[in-house]
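User: quick one
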Amino acid sequence: MDKVLMSHGGGGSMMQSFISEIFIEKFNNEYLNQMEDAALLPGKTVFTTDSFVVKPVFFPGGDIGRLAICGTVNDISMRGAKPLFLSASFIIEEGFPVDDIKKIVDSMVDAANEAGVQIVTGDTKVVEKHSADGIFINTAGIGILHDEASVSIKNGKPGDVVIVSGTIGDHGMAVMGAREGLDFDPPLLSDVSPLNKMVEKLMALRDAVKILRDPTRGGVAEVLYEIAGMSNVGIKIYEDKLPVKENVKSACSMLGIDYLHLANEGKLVCVVDKDFAYKALEIMKDDKYGKDAAIIGEIDDSGLVTIETIYGTNRIVDRPIGELLPRIC
Amino acid sequence: MDKVLMSHGGGGSMMQSFISEIFIEKFNNEYLNQMEDAALLPGKTVFTTDSFVVKPVFFPGGDIGRLAICGTVNDISMRGAKPLFLSASFIIEEGFPVDDIKKIVDSMVDAANEAGVQIVTGDTKVVEKHSADGIFINTAGIGILHDEASVSIKNGKPGDVVIVSGTIGDHGMAVMGAREGLDFDPPLLSDVSPLNKMVEKLMALRDAVKILRDPTRGGVAEVLYEIAGMSNVGIKIYEDKLPVKENVKSACSMLGIDYLHLANEGKLVCVVDKDFAYKALEIMKDDKYGKDAAIIGEIDDSGLVTIETIYGTNRIVDRPIGELLPRIC
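Assistant: Done. Structure below.
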């Protein structure tokens, strides 16, 4: 490996090893080594960052601005924290329409208002034509750990229940559709949404909520593999329990894509103590962004991530390796 | 104005109005409106962000990695705060050499160690060939306000003294030289350095240190204009007191460039109560990065930024408008 490949940013196992080898080992410290979506710092401060390079910049159901706010709000939330303050840094290609920036900023403002966060610091760089593709946005964010929170990717134990907060693959397929000119009827919109309010309500269940993770690049499959790996457990899910929109499902079978690999930007995967599973499900279903929430499986001690198909057979879930679709976020 | 121009990112007055109109007015809140290099949040937390797009990625005296650490360390420091934790987010063009990433990461590690900060969270995105130019790095940072700190761009009062911590324009001219193939004898290196230790020592002077600002894009001239504008004062500087390397000075006169417009990445401009000016100067000169520090002028009530030339005449300092040199940081 002497040159960076698209798959090094694809969210799958190639990206994980690239990041471990190139960054984690060198930057090595107790906070980074938590390997969570956000770092937990002293004083219950939670800190995270993401750069957004989605293409196209405007897609059905959202745009890079809403994505940049929700992505960072959600990464903080998945650590069991309340997001408070965001930074916003723009790299803009010379010639990019100013009206498009205004639209993007408006949608950042709307998303920030909805999530109840403030954009408190920023930066703007402009690069020559062809030195960037339109606009890239970085957001970093600071939050404060919920008092009740006790979530970690390492918390999974056999018997725990796995819940997903809604339909799978909407963002990935909506962006793919926009890029490839696919027509969906009914129209398919990205799920890009801030999940902090849902997480805040889940925190009432305290340490019964063991793991929170948003299945973005690499999709639900990658999250399940990360949970299995970091908690040193297995996971079994059930195909007939997976909430997937019909049009996403049929587009996937047409294109030969596994919807478990598709990115989501307004969904979370939650691992809960089994005695609190229905309570957690109820909390999610009561939330604006959780009405299609479903229990999809459970943690076991197999060390494998398996799926029971609608035919009753069992198979290993494919782990995403390289990139399904570049620049999904 | 319907398309973004290079000058919108050039650090001069065009960038200031672009940012005010497009971002500040929309994101409008008490923290962002401080208009400092970093936001001061509740709990004495200081938060900042910068994206780095410097070209070339490796330049005499540094690289984009060292720049990305020092830039954010310095922005936190200029708020009178101690930098603690940084994020690092990479946008990499497909095909970028992995060995170059390793060199950049090594230099980030060195700079972070020198500054005493930790890189605790990160992100990696890869975009297609020609969708970015090599590598862009965003760093955001969190710091904690020094107990003694009382700095703000609005603090300048007539009679205060203006000090610069060393030679002016080294970074800007080093990058320009690397890009244009200019040969300097002796070689000219960028000054890219972390200034947090120097600031920490200056804090012993408590509220006698009124303003700290690092003159990056737009150079010393832009910082003087921002101070004059935000503090509602004038500033007079003296050409014969400005520390400038001979080779920077001669390259500037050859190229018709004002060194006051050249970017610096390891210098600060400090406004100090006049009774503490020599003490502040001594502290700076004792620091590794401040040996060429000099008192360059004073605040007055003229409302103008003026320079007394070596011929004894007075003129208005030119304010940078567009971009002198794109992608300097």
